[in-house]
Design brief:
- It contains five helices and 14 strands.
- By secondary structure, the protein is of the alpha/beta class.
- Strands 1, 2, 3, 4, 5, 6, 7, 10, 11, 12, 13 and 14 form a twelve-stranded mixed sheet that branches.
- Helix 1 runs parallel beside helix 2.
- The longest helix has 24 residues, at about 25-45.
């Protein structure tokens, strides 16, 4: 069987003001965020993953401050960094005034994303072939405004005229959204989806951002779903963003084993905070 390995990290919220912390500790916490991203990329290189998946909220808001943007670009530009796929979320939408994703505004700030970084900038699903591993496509969609959306990303209608299966190919998705029935009290519901929609989805794995604590949806073997094991996972935020987010935080390594008509997915946490 073939093996695809991914590093998933989201909800980093670079540029977070951390106003709830004493003034002397805010810069330190922002350095913790930067260190977490650097360590995740280092791990991705050491583990020789095929891609890094970033399903939203890499940045905390619009406008993105120049320091945070410059740091992120440099972090993903280190030698050996695998392909990076980013689906902007509700905090860092792919709006025309967001310098994080607008090439003209990036140029004005004297920076640009390296060629191996792909940003999904449409609210419709679109797919990209994974250059590091034949037979794998990565799909994504973006938020266009910070106000969020109640459009359902995994509804049957969302795939019409946007998604088509390909022979001998598996499809992995990343997006930002809310699993119904599991929304934390401090977060708003946006781009909702149900467990039933996950089960019916054509993707073998769903990398999702928005919730800041790690969680998963699993499927047993022997069902008619495209894969068994971990069907969907939130990596959670790499570092705790406030006092309501206790416990370990980090990224996850996702391993997809596929071939001969079967596909199984596993996910292991990488502790960063």
């Amino acid at each position: 069987m073939a093996l695809a390995r991914f590093l998933q990290i989201s909800d980093l919220h670079l540029g977070r003001p951390f106003a709830w912390l004493p003034q002397e500790r805010r810069d330190l916490r922002r350095r913790h965020q930067q260190y977490a991203l650097e360590q995740a990329i280092k791990y991705a290189i050491e583990r020789d993953v095929h891609a890094i998946l970033v399903p939203g909220d890499l940045f905390d808001g619009v406008p993105v401050d120049t320091g945070s943007l410059t740091f992120a670009v440099r972090a993903f530009s280190v030698p050996g960094c695998p392909p990076v796929f980013i689906s902007p979320g509700n905090h860092d939408p792919a709006s025309s005034d967001n310098a994080a994703w607008n090439s003209r505004l990036q140029q004005a700030r004297g920076t640009h994303w390296p060629s191996h970084v792909h940003v999904f900038d449409s609210p419709r699903w679109s797919g990209v072939e994974l250059t590091t591993l034949p037979g794998v496509r990565v799909w994504g969609r973006a938020f266009l405004t910070s106000s969020g959306t109640m459009e359902r990303p995994l509804a049957k209608s969302a795939f019409e005229d946007a998604y088509a299966p390909a022979e001998d190919t598996i499809d992995v998705a990343l997006f930002h959204g809310s699993r119904e029935g599991r929304c934390p009290p401090a977060q708003k519901i946006t781009a909702p989806f149900s467990d039933a929609e996950v089960a019916a989805s054509p993707f073998v794995y769903h990398a999702v951002g928005h919730y800041h604590l790690r969680s998963e949806i699993e499927a047993p073997a022997g069902t008619d779903q495209p894969s068994s094991g971990v069907r969907l996972a939130y990596a959670g935020s790499p570092v705790a963003l406030d006092y309501t987010e206790p416990g370990d935080h980090g990224a996850i390594e996702v391993v997809v084993r596929f071939g001969e008509g079967a596909c199984t997915v596993s996910a292991e946490p990488l502790r960063l905070d």
